[in-house]
């Protein structure tokens, strides 16, 4: 067990340190691997190294077959296989194992669902929904304008500091995945809402020194849960029965840019995608939207 414990600790350090994965992602890896170990040995916890040394591709296929019988989606199965592949490649590289049992396995093919987006008019209605001069209304308007105007992930939004918003200069400094910094342009409505919040709203929310750009009513940094609560104030009244999340703004940001003729590589850079293929899903989405317009407008469609 000592060797397995050592390997497990090293694996965790590599993922969190070298690869800079988030604690949330590490927890997902941990759950998936422990589920496999439980299937393998019938017991909770880490297995002895001997149980891993003799593993073959058939053993992994058996685990995937069990998942399929229990009704797991292909996406969940692919994620669990990715966790196993990462772990066994690490064990092989570090000399804990002589063979990788996932080497001959193929990831289940996924049908990639197209993300749901707001129309341009719906996005405008939503970002303009906060009204009034009180500091929370000014904050909500600025927050929604930035979500839609910059296409940020919710984690990136709540980690923004006041110094990241260069008021009047039209740019937002964003720290993305892997601690990669990028500059994202902001349109005039977002700049104006952000300037008003910084001048008139944020100072009235401050209770103590705080770097965060978006503050809660107690003067602390707004959390992802707080952002979702803000959305829940405005979405039901505008779009009853619709599910609109912070990521819906990100999807809408990318789709509307491409619909308007923006260069795909620029959109990739602004979204902070490492791979262009990740951004290309929005070109498919734009094509779908164009087909919908054609079918609804052409007399012989």
CATH hierarchy: architecture of the largest domain = Orthogonal Bundle
How many DSSP H or I helices? 14
How much of the residues is beta strand, in percent? under 5%
Look at the helices and sheets and give the structural class.
mainly alpha
Q: What would you call the shape?
A: elongated
Spatial strand order of the main sheet? 1-2-3
The span between the termini is: 66 Å
Run of helices and strands: HHHHHHHHEEEHHHHHH
Model description:
The structure is a single chain. With 301 residues, the chain is mainly alpha-helical. Helix content is 59%, strand content 4%. The N and C termini lie far apart (66 Å). The model has no long low-confidence stretch (mean pLDDT 86).
How would you briefly describe this protein structure?
The chain is mainly alpha-helical.
Itemize the secondary structure elements and their pairings.
Layout: H1 2-18, H2 23-41, H3 49-53, H4 57-69, H5 74-93, H6 120-127, H7 135-150, H8 154-158, E1 165-166, E2 171-175, E3 181-185, H9 188-205, H10 224-238, H11 246-259, H12 264-271, H13 276-279, H14 281-297
Antiparallel strand pairs: 1-2, 2-3
Keywords:
single chain; 301 residues; mainly alpha; DNA polymerase, domain 1; hpI Integrase, Chain A; 2 domains; 3-stranded antiparallel β-sheet; 14 helices; 59% helix
């Amino acid at each position: 067990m000592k060797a397995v414990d050592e390997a497990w600790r090293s694996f965790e350090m590599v993922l969190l340190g070298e690869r800079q994965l988030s604690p949330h992602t590490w927890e997902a890896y941990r759950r998936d691997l422990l589920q496999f170990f439980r299937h393998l040995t019938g017991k909770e916890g880490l297995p002895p190294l001997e149980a891993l040394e003799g593993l073959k591709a058939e053993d992994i296929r058996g685990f995937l077959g069990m998942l399929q019988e229990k009704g797991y989606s292909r996406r969940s199965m692919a994620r669990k296989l990715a966790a196993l592949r990462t772990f066994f490649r690490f064990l092989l590289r570090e000399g804990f194992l002589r063979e990788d049992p996932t080497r001959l396995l193929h990831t289940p093919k996924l049908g990639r669902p197209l993300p749901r987006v707001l129309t341009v008019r719906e996005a405008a209605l939503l970002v303009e929904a906060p009204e009034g001069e009180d500091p929370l209304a000014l904050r909500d308007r600025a927050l929604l304008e930035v979500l839609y105007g910059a296409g940020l992930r919710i984690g990136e939004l709540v980690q923004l500091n006041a110094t990241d918003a260069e008021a009047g200069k039209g740019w937002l400094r964003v720290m993305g995945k892997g601690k990669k910094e990028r500059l994202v342009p902001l349109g005039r409505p977002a700049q104006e809402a952000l300037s008003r919040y910084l001048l008139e709203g944020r100072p009235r929310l401050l209770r103590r020194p705080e770097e965060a750009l978006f503050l809660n009513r107690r003067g602390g940094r707004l959390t992802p849960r707080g952002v979702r609560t803000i959305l829940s104030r405005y979405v039901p009244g505008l779009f009853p029965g619709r599910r609109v999340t912070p990521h819906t703004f990100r999807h809408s940001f990318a789709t509307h840019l491409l619909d308007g003729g923006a260069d795909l590589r620029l959109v990739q850079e602004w979204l902070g995608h490492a791979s262009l293929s990740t951004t290309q899903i929005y070109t498919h989405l734009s094509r779908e939207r164009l087909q919908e317009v054609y079918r609804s407008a052409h007399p012989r469609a």
